[in-house]
Design goal:
globular, 5-stranded parallel sheet, binds flavin-adenine dinucleotide, single chain
Length: about 600
């Protein structure tokens, strides 16, 4: 497997790998990582679909990418996906997956057309004092000291960031700024989480720094991701003969040693109460999504709280990873990620408005008609003074193909589920859907004498607790996440956000697709480049733009410098006078 960039490799079809007709694949889990790996097996490794088996514990595919309508409970989405134009592996794949909404186009075209015609941007990024615009006004409000703390992290080599928390590097000069308000709510970082991952994010999305405050950086699918991404991929796979085994729990994978390599030789499964063993040879490849940030999700309803389940169950993704990790030291350390659910949990909720009574309050904040069919909030609106640190968003409506006309689905989440609310004096995890809706209505400015009535009669709210939602961000060191294909492995790969791949960032759909692609290309020896992580961090123009944006548009000449440093800057500016360097700095408003 090797990385490439540019369109020479992008549009090339690889030669069929030798012997692939005699090989088969077993994918554990049917989340995005497995679905993507299966698509790459079909399209690029040219494996027969009937040789590809997807073993999924649940009754439906998609894993974290959900869009459910639970009978007698209502619509519920655990999350909504913010996506980027430089999800290179995603677009490489999605150009080949036919849309199920519009005949004759791919899901890349569907997404591209939609976001071209109706680009995303926000008209109110944060509120305070019950629905008033908090006037963050696209500013970061970082001091020079705060900017230097961020710059220092940006320049620190990875090995010096092993197990380091952000609290060890940043102080209030970063944490008390609008920059941090935007950052932590958009990406769901907590202050004590991984500095290494924060650095990766800064580098990975350096081209988007200027687009963070108003979300011009973001793009969204038309419907929820189950309908816009999972269903088309499943159709493509089924059309190619891939076999899906639902309600099939993998209990263990056993390995044997051969010629200095580890061979996955047996998969133990449980299907409808029956235990079965799948025997494997070196020609059978196994792809395992190790760890899931939606393991142990528990659902509430309008009248029920979601609760919390912190136990690592043997049959969960983390439970299975534990059993596999015991069999080789290079298979990672799951406990590094799943042992602090009090830190990694979030509660999200889907509010389904049932009539028009709540809509004017929404419209007043986001300045758009929620029923127009176009962009509504244009990304999350953060309630700056909420004890739960609530953020809410309304994507283009309808969010479900089946959604009744005139109804709106609002998605919200709180970063602190163990703190009492400002209106409802309960923690978010203790609240019923109706109570969560009350707290949100309070923060969007509904008069207190109307809150109860509207939450009861004009909305149906369903919450979900995800104890491991931000487990991806737990402080880590090299070796905690296994390599996609560990050096010792003959036929086994780790995929998803807990497998290690250079430079890419977790909590993303792209990461799952990338690891799926890398796993297939490595094990099957597919002779075509995997698109490298977008290289904006090596692009001087992006670095200049980000530097200026982080300082709210100020030129470098405004920095408060010591006399010595001021002289160095003066001399440097003199030296570049009349050169292309000076032109470049002027063009990017650095000077
Ligand atoms: C709330 C939330 C918000 C998000 N926001 C964004 C965003 O804004 N932008 C973005 O790009 N990404 C976002 N993500 C991340 C993205 O959705 C996930 O990273 C991605 O979908 C994970 O896919 P996966 O296949 O790697 O893992 P999962 O989807 O977790 O799949 C694991 C699968 O394994 C199955 N399984 C578990 N144990 C077993 C077993 N023993 N046997 C058989 N099957 C088993 C599970 O049922 C599941 O189907 C978000 C995720 C969440 C939860």
């Amino acid at each position: 497997m090797y990385y490439s960039n540019g369109n020479y490799e992008a549009f090339a079809k690889p030669i069929k790998p030798e012997g692939v007709d005699h090989k088969s694949a077993y994918l554990i889990g049917s989340g995005l990582a497995s679905l993507a790996a299966a698509c790459f097996l079909v399209r690029d490794a040219q494996m027969k679909g009937s040789h590809i088996h997807i073993l999924e514990k649940g009754p439906i595919p998609g894993g974290a990418l959900d869009g459910e309508q639970i009978t007698n409970v209502g619509y519920v989405m655990r999350g909504g996906r913010e996506m980027d134009n430089h999800f290179e592996c995603m677009w490489d794949l999605f150009r080949s997956i036919p849309s199920i909404q519009t005949e004759g186009i791919s899901i890349l075209d569907e997404y591209y057309w939609l976001n071209k015609k109706d680009p995303n941007y926000s008209l109110c990024r944060a509120t305070e004092k019950c629905g008033q615009d908090a006037h963050t006004d696209k500013k970061f409000n970082l001091s020079d000291k705060g900017a230097m703390e961020i710059m220092k992290l940006f320049m620190t080599p990875d090995d010096q960031l092993a197990n380091v928390k952000m609290t060890e590097l940043f102080d209030d000069e970063v944490f008390n700024t609008t920059f941090w308000l935007y950052w932590r709510t958009m990406f769901a970082f907590k202050d004590d989480q991984s500095a290494l991952e924060m650095k990766r994010y800064m580098q990975r999305y350096i081209h988007h720094i200027g687009g963070l405050p108003d979300f011009t950086a973001l793009r969204f699918t038309k419907y929820n991701q189950y309908e816009s991404m999972v269903l088309p991929m499943v159709k493509y796979l089924k059309d190619n003969g891939v076999v899906f085994h639902y309600n099939t729990t993998v209990e263990n994978v056993l390995f044997t040693a051969k010629n200095g390599k580890k061979v996955a030789s047996e998969i133990d499964v449980e299907h409808e109460g029956k235990k079965e063993t799948i025997g494997l040879t070196e020609d059978d490849y196994v792809f395992f999504t190790n760890g899931s940030n939606v393991d142990n999700s528990t659902y509430g309803s309008q009248n029920k709280a979601c609760g919390m389940d912190k136990v690592i169950h043997e049959d969960s993704s983390f439970g299975l990873w534990r059993k596999i990790a015991k069999q080789d030291s290079s298979f990672g350390h799951p406990d590094k990620f799943c042992m602090d659910p009090e830190d990694s949990n979030w509660v999200s909720a889907t509010v389904n408005t049932l009539d028009g009574k709540i809509l004017p309050y929404i419209q007043k904040i986001c300045k758009r008609d929620p029923l127009s069919g176009g962009v509504v909030t244009g990304g999350i609106v953060t309630v700056k003074d909420s004890a739960w640190l609530l953020s809410w968003t309304i994507n283009r409506q309808p969010q479900y193909v089946s959604q009744p006309n005139g109804q709106v689905l609002v998605w919200l989440y709180g970063m602190f589920s163990d703190v009492k609310g400002d209106y409802v004096k309960k923690t978010m995890r203790e609240c019923t859907g109706e109570e969560i809706c009350e707290e949100w209505l309070y923060h969007i400015g509904v008069p207190t004498d109307q809150i109860k009535e509207l939450a009861l009669k004009s909305a149906n709210t369903v919450s979900v607790m995800m104890p491991f939602a931000s487990a991806y961000f737990q402080p880590r060191e090299k070796g905690d996440r296994p390599e996609v294909v560990p050096a010792c492995s003959a036929n086994f790969a780790f995929i998803g956000n807990f497998a290690e791949t250079p430079r890419d960032t977790v909590f993303t759909t792209e990461y799952s697709i990338r690891t799926g692609m890398e796993a297939v290309y490595t094990l099957l020896n597919v002779d075509r480049g995997v698109p490298e992580v977008w290289g904006s961090v090596y692009n001087v123009r992006d670095l200049l733009d980000a530097t200026v944006a982080l300082r709210d548009g100020q030129k470098i000449t405004t920095m408060k410098l010591s006399f010595g440093k001021k002289m160095v800057l003066k001399t440097a500016l003199k030296k570049i006078k009349g050169t292309e360097v000076e032109n470049l700095l002027k063009e990017h408003k650095v000077i």
